[in-house]
Amino acid sequence: MNIAIIGLGLMGGSLGAALKRGARADRVLGYARRAETRDAALAQGIVDEAFESPSACVREADVVALCLPVLAMEPCLVECRNALQGGALVTDVGSTKRDLHASLTTALDGVDALYIGSHPMAGSEESGLQAANPELYRDSVVIITPEEGVDDARIMQLWEFWVSLGAIVQATSPAEHDRIVAATSHFPHLLASVLVRHVLSREHDVEPYCGSGFRDSTRIAEGPSDVWHDVFNSNRENVLAELKAFEEQLASVRGILESEDFDALRVFLEHSRVLRGKMG
């Protein structure tokens, strides 16, 4: 198959590198806005051809992967929809799905192409093509989000695409996806960002006193702000629900400390330790 990758940052570049390393595509076609990125992708063997426009990139593609910030995907797909070849499968690597499914399905109305969402639970605080890693998707969970009524054969096509890259595939609805990842991905990023602001915005320089615990807990806050802005914008309600639930947990812990109930504190800490240990 011919695979078109729209956006050659960390996620798109890693996808191209993985496809090329395993010879899993006849041709890997890439689009990037900047000429420097296109030239680098060609020089590094991440794509076979690089294009100046999304429309030119998708013209001969069997699978199109949108590797852009969430809110940039719809205008891009509208721009190139008429260039898609018949039967093309469009997917993405975005972190939210409910609104995206609605907007991208609408964008493909009247076009012989199908959109099924994908969300690789993989990434890095680094960004850009220079951070591309051909092993990024190996052993990572990829959640696919087909709507009801989609042909099982097309779902299996996308499933096998990710499995061929070494990913572990799960499937759920777009709405359920957004509820789950609000807790497991989006809220933790927001919490890490708040923690960075809380600790490092003081007048006194405390950075020399920050150990590995603080650094590990806040590493993800270095992720690209444009990507995370779009995530919180498009999954606001679910993230707000998680924030409210967390505030209740925080109030409970504050109450334990204020009442000096150190037996309850020990129970709380032990319960959290056991839960975390079950993750492996």
Report on the architecture of this protein:
It contains eleven helices and nine strands. It is α/β, with parallel strands linked by helices. It has two domains: 2-172, NAD(P)-binding Rossmann-like Domain (Rossmann fold, 3-Layer(aba) Sandwich); 176-277, Orthogonal Bundle (6-phosphogluconate dehydrogenase C-terminal fold). The chain has a six-stranded parallel beta sheet with strand order 3-2-1-4-5-6. A three-stranded mixed beta sheet has the order 7-8-9, covered by helices on one side. The chain starts with a strand and ends with a helix.
List the helices and strands and how they pair.
Blueprint: E1 2-6, H1 10-21, E2 27-31, H2 35-43, E3 49-51, H3 54-58, E4 63-66, H4 70-80, E5 88-92, H5 98-107, E6 113-115, E7 117-120, E8 141-145, H6 152-163, E9 168-171, H7 174-200, H8 212-218, H9 225-234, H10 236-258, H11 262-277
Parallel strand pairs: 1-2, 1-4, 2-3, 4-5, 5-6, 8-9
Antiparallel strand pairs: 7-8
